[in-house]
Structures are given as C-alpha cells and as structure tokens.
Amino acid sequence: MPCIKDLLAGLAQTQEVTVRGWVRTKRELKNIVFLDVYDGSCFNGIQCAFERADPDAEAALASLSTGCSVAVKGKIAPSLGAGQAVELAASSVELIGSAPAETYPLQKKQHSFEFLRENAHLRARTNTFGAVARVRSRLAFGVHQFFQERGFHYVHTPIITASDAEGAGALFQVTTLDLAALAASGKAPDYRRDFFERPGYLTVSGQLEAETYASALSRVYTFGPAFRAERSNTTRHLAEFWMIEPETAFADLEGVMRLAEDFLKYLFGLALRECADDLAFFDSRIKKGLAASLRAALEAPFTHITYTDAVAELEKNAGAFTFKPFWGCELQSEHERFLSEQAAKGPVVITDFPQEIKPFYMKQNDDGKTVRAMDVLVPRLGEIIGGSQREERLDRLESRMAALGMNSGDYAWYLDLRRYGTVPHGGFGMGFERLIQYVTGMANIRDVIPYPRAAGQADF
Fold it and tell me: Are 98 and 63 in contact (CB under 8 A)?
C-alpha cells in the first residue's frame, strides 16, 4: 500500500489506490466535497475529491469529522487546484474510527503549545509536532550514518551506574529498598541489602564506559537516554534526554573539535536536504530565517576563541548581562548567546576553560589553571556540544581526583585505563534534544521530545 508521500511524489506506479489516514479538514461545495487526509509520512496530506452525485458516498461523508480515521478509494488524477500536483478522485470512503467533534481536543484551530503538552498523546497529529517527529526520526538515523561512515562502533553503555561521571551530584537513585518503611523507622538505608548491594543511580553520561571501549576499539559512540535530577525549570533542560557521546583514541583536542564541527554540519545538511518540507513549515510558522541560518552554519567555518578571550569580550559589554562575567565564572545562557549571536555571528567554539568549573577527567594544561575543554555554542540556543581531551596521565588524574575529595577506589577500573596502555584520547557529548531545538527553531525543549520529563512532570 503506497503512503501519501509516495503518491504526492509520483513514486507509486498505480492509478487505483486506497489511502488510509486521518481527516484534517472537510470542505463542502455545491457539487463536490474535499477531504484533506494525512498519514504522517510527510508534511502534506492528499486532497480527496468526492462528487456529490453518489448518495452512498454522501451518507458516509456526513459522518466524517476532523480527527477520524478513514480508508478512501479512488484514482490518482492531476489536481485543478493550487497547492498540489495530484489529488485523489475518490469513489468511496470507509469510516474506520470516529472522532466526535464535541469531545475530540484537536479541532481545526491554532492550539497553544501549553495546551498540546497537556494532550501529548495527540499532539503528534498537529502540523508542528508531526514535523518535529519526522525531523527527529531522520536526524536520529543520521547520527548513526555519520559515525558508521567514519568507522565508529556503536556501544551500549549502562543506564544504571554506581558512579557520577559529571561530578554534579544531580542523580536519580535506583533502589529496591522500602524507603517508606525506612523513613517510618528512622533507620539509615543498609545498601548491602539493596539490589546492587551498593547505591545505584540512573546515568547522566555513558562517557566513562565509552572510554573503556575506545581504549580497545579506537573509535566508539553512544546514543541513549541520560537522566539528571536538576530542578531546572527552563526551556533548555529536561530530566530525561538522549545523549550522543563519541570517544576517540589517539586524539587531541583539535581532533575532537574537527569531529564536532563535521558532525553538526553533516546533520544540518541532512535536515536541509531531506526534511525540506518540514523545515519550510518551521521557517514560515515557528522561526523566520531558520533555513538560512542553518545554511550559513553549514557553509562557514566555526569561529574559535579561548575562554579567556571570550570572557574579555563579555566584560567589554558587562552592562548587557544579568550575570556579570568574570574570569572563572561558568558561562550563562545569556553569555553564550551573546558570543554566538553578536560576537561571532554564528557557531563558535570556546576552548581552555578553568579547571574548577569542569569535570575531573579533562586534560590539564601546563598553566595549572585551565583544561583542554571545548564547548560549541550556536545562535538562539547557546551550548549544543561540550567535550574535551581526556587526562591520560595517571599521576595527574589521581592528583585531580584527590583535590576534589573523590574516592579513587570507586574509579579503579577507570584509572586502569591509564595504567595499562594509556593513550591520548577525547570526545564530546551532545544532547539530542538541543540539536532538534536548533534545527526546528522550537523555543522549548519539552516540545522536541515525545513525552517530556521534568520536575513535577511525568505524565503519559
């Protein structure tokens, strides 16, 4: 059975077809009735035209409303109307599932994104969220294409972990202990009785485990869910999200930065080529100039600047910021957007951050103050990628962990990578939802994942 995408593109080698999908609109004229039917295979639906001379079809059409599912039979014919090359000259229609207008939430009008989040089980039927879903699907496959074409091996890292890769402490605990009973008794948890016989958590990153495989397979990447228990009620944060983390042996920071730029440009180009109709919708209805900004990011080299120089640039414009910039501060979203939107006027790579604001595993520079870290910032969003060259020197890594008060015994397996055949290596992490935000122009990250999880939000 051909999908609507194939019919509209002229790829289906048939004249007599059955179209199955959902009704977007029904428009009645004196001698003809038009149904706009879509099946989600592409942005556009197909116009189905019924002559009003058939009493059986007339009776069937009377029962149809927005949202109902149908099977329409007919022949593909050139369309006399504007906006489509072909239409279906329909001969019959079967109602498969009704959608009563008095209760169906999605009528033919514009709904707010807040309302659609409350109806997340139906929002993929709207133009906006159908387009988001198709872009997300295509770029998810594109992630695998990019790395597979470059000799990377896909590694499934654990979802449950006993370590905190980022050192931020914002972890979801996983336990089989009866916490209510413990709270009532006033006793402290005895983790020897827990499922893993020690505290366990949902992972915030698969990077540390990916490093072990990079130390054997040279080039690996992960693509899976990650979890962070931060109560960040912003348009850029989720509690559950998808992370992409490549790790490369025998690599320095320059190699990591080249890989990150190539990766983003590959995905931007893929979206422009293969999601053109959906991007045209986003450009028209969500963010004007979206496609042009993606093309500009694809065609021009990314700007590179050190953290020290970036802070100096911010300090020149300190009056423009709520959070005053200073050397040693963590860059805020307003700082990141200024650097990408006004200073660089495009994607910018910031390097050599103060070690105090970065995780323990990053390679230390000889100045004793900074590490070989990099962030990629893009306009409208800020940080989209964060990465580094990893510290491959055992003594330096142990010294840094001791300074942070970390228990080296918990990371003995990670330190072994530096004891046995250590090599320079590095990688980066990218939250997939932030990529989708940037490519689609959607303002809120909760609108680019099917069922958002955030503080106080675990519906559906």
Answer: yes
Of the given ranges (50-59, 245-254, 265-274), which has the lowest mean pLDDT? 50-59
pTM here is 0.94
Query: Which residues are bridge partners to 38 per DSSP?
Result: 22
CA 384 to chain CA centroid, nearest Å: 10
pLDDT of residue 109: 80
Which residue's structure tokens are 């180009």? 269
Specify the domain boundaries for CATH 2.40.50.140 within the chain: 4-102
Which residue is associated with the tokens 């490549």? 246
Q: What is the CA radius of gyration of the chain?
A: 27
Superfamily of domain 123-168+204-447: Bira Bifunctional Protein; Domain 2 (3.30.930.10)
Burial of 412 per CB tally in 10 Å (0-12, 13-18, 19+)? exposed
Distance CA 276, CA 274 (A): 6
Write phi, then psi, for 258 (nearest 5 degrees): -65, -45
pLDDT per residue over 41-89, tens digit each?
999 999 999 988 777 778 889 999 999 999 999 999 988 777 788 999 9
Fold of 4-102: OB fold (Dihydrolipoamide Acetyltransferase, E2P) (2.40.50)
Mean pLDDT calculated for residue range 352-375 = 97
For position 108, what pLDDT does the model report?
Answer: 79
Q: In the block, which residue shows the tokens 């980066």?
A: 428
Q: Alpha carbon 390 to chain centroid distance?
A: 25
Q: Which tokens go with 351? A: 């390097």
Mean pLDDT of the chain: 94
Q: C-alpha distances in angstroms, 353 versus 168, 209, 308?
A: 17, 24, 8
